[in-house]
Amino acid sequence: MDNLLLKIDQYKTEISNFTASDGETAEAFRIKYLGTKGLVKELMGEMRNVAPENKKSFGQVMNEFKVFAEAKYEALKGAENSNGKAAADELDLSLPADPLPLGSRHPISLVRNRMVSIFQRLGFAVAEGPEIEDDWHNFTALNLPENHPARDMQDTFYISQNPDWLLRTHTSSVQVREMEKGKLPIRIICPGRVYRNETISARAHCFFHQVEGLYIAENVSFADLKQTLYFFVQEMFGKEVKIRFRPSYFPFTEPSAEMDISCLICGGPGCSVCKHTGWVEILGCGMVHPNLLDNCGIDSNKYTGFAFGMGVERITMLKYQIKDLRLFSENDVRFLKQFTSAV
Questions:
Q1: Global pTM value
Q2: Are the CB atoms for 29 and 72 separated by under 8 Å?
Q3: Which of 161, 167, 198, 302 is the most exposed place for a label (fewest CB within 10 A)?
Q4: Highest mean pLDDT: which of 193-207, 300-314, 323-337?
Q5: Pairing relationship of beta strands 207-217 and 186-195 according to DSSP bridges
Q6: Phi, psi at residue 266, to the nearest 5°?
Q7: Dihedrals φ, ψ of 308, to 5°?
């Protein structure tokens, strides 16, 4: 019994010196001393080892020890509540709240919306279509029949359930769908995501975004096309940017051209983006091929038109002088937050 009384005295000393600054510490005290497996329960279990003549006196000592521990726990809880009330009394409700981080549209969305706005000022309406297309709208109607060599230029993702289904390789399919409606004249732009099986690098990705345009009416000329694109480039990049057209080939336009602008990243001396030429190709264009008009039920002897298409990522890279295409799809907040205040 003497050993038990010595233990109780030691525990009383520990309890007297115990302090708590928060609720977790007070709860730890309760578990250690007053819990179902605490020291009070453990010592009471020693009653069976005490001689019968000493049980009464030991029971009194244990009851005093239990009351002492409970009183200490109540004191610790009272001190905790007091501290919490004091902290609440010191709270200044007139202070401004913690700032919330502001988000922004993705740079691709910012530039696409800007491109749409420019062409809408010229009277172009926005047209959209499905990203899963059939062979007719994506290839055949565009003067790209089966086994045409130009199909090799567009590595296509085909849907295994149906060999006629594919992920569209350009938004020209939307132009075909609008032409099939037969409502003339047509003046549309077709923004959207497209897919091609390309190796992911700083210059290419397996998906990207396009904005294509189509204007069909009577007496539309290549001069109309050039003036439309001149206006777009000057509004997007400024009037000091140089522009040039180069002859090219597209199955759905004739004549066809590529349009280049002076490189905005290096300013002309040459860099990896412009392949050290000082010029960057931004779009392809041309007069709508008569076969395409006929495929869509439009009289090619009466109507003419022009079409153009460009990648939004390339325009964005030039606009903001970004050198790696992969940054657009990595979702790195350090990159994206630069455009929080962009308009």
A1: 0.66
A2: yes
A3: 161
A4: 300-314
A5: antiparallel
A6: -100, -15
A7: -150, 160
